[in-house]
Design goal:
The protein has 198 residues and is mostly helical. 76% of the residues lie in helices and 0% in strands. The protein has eleven helices and no strands. The chain is elongated, with a radius of gyration of 19 Å.
């Protein structure tokens, strides 16, 4: 689209609003951030925010989560390309994802009790979108490994991503104070056989 077109201007405004939402979520927490806070941080009126983001706060929460997720997946894709084996890719990728969510303020705050309602409305309701994004990133590695018979032939990338997504979420939410080496052993014992060829 041409830089001076109305569509380009609308896209710039939307990105500015998402930037402001990300900053507000980091400063105030997801549950305490209002559309007014986001509008003020963006230097725009509330009406402008609602025109640019018709889904309101829930759409903004999801937009921030997806942006953060894309950043992580860019890093993960590089890591997957460097891993020597499918089991290592499964285990190290899962550990990286858990560490990323725990360290990422925007996403981590969505998983704490004060924001549980927003998590369900904005993110869990869009789980298909989140899973599809993850699948798009890992599909080339998964399909290459399957061609080499390193991944079980009867499973597909969407199912594998959903399985790992659920596993990552449970490791974050149900933290058992298991050290990294013990978690690595747990994943090698239970997650690897579910995906990797024997």
């Amino acid at each position: 689209m041409p830089p001076g077109s109305p569509a380009a201007a609308a896209e710039r405004a939307r990105e500015r609003i998402i930037d402001a939402a990300e900053e507000c979520f980091r400063r105030f927490g997801v549950a305490k951030t209002t559309v007014e806070d986001i509008a003020a941080a963006a230097g725009l009126s509330r009406a402008t925010v609602y025109r640019a983001v018709t889904g309101g706060r829930d759409e903004l929460i999801l937009a921030v989560v997806l942006r953060s997720l894309r950043r992580f997946l860019d890093v993960l894709a590089e890591r997957l390309a460097a891993e020597r084996s499918v089991p290592d890719a499964i285990v190290e990728g899962t550990l990286s994802a858990v560490a990323f969510v725990r360290a990422e303020p925007t996403i981590a705050r969505l998983l704490v009790p004060e924001a549980a309602g927003h998590m369900q409305a904005a993110v869990a309701g869009a789980a298909e979108q989140v899973l599809a994004l993850c699948a798009d990133y890992v599909r080339p590695y998964f399909e290459a490994a399957q061609r080499e018979r390193l991944v079980r032939a009867e499973i597909d990338v969407e199912g594998a991503v959903e399985f790992l997504f659920r596993l990552i979420t449970s490791l974050i939410v149900m933290d058992r104070d298991r050290g990294e080496d013990a978690t690595r052993a747990f994943l090698h014992t239970f997650a690897v056989p579910a995906i990797a060829a024997s």
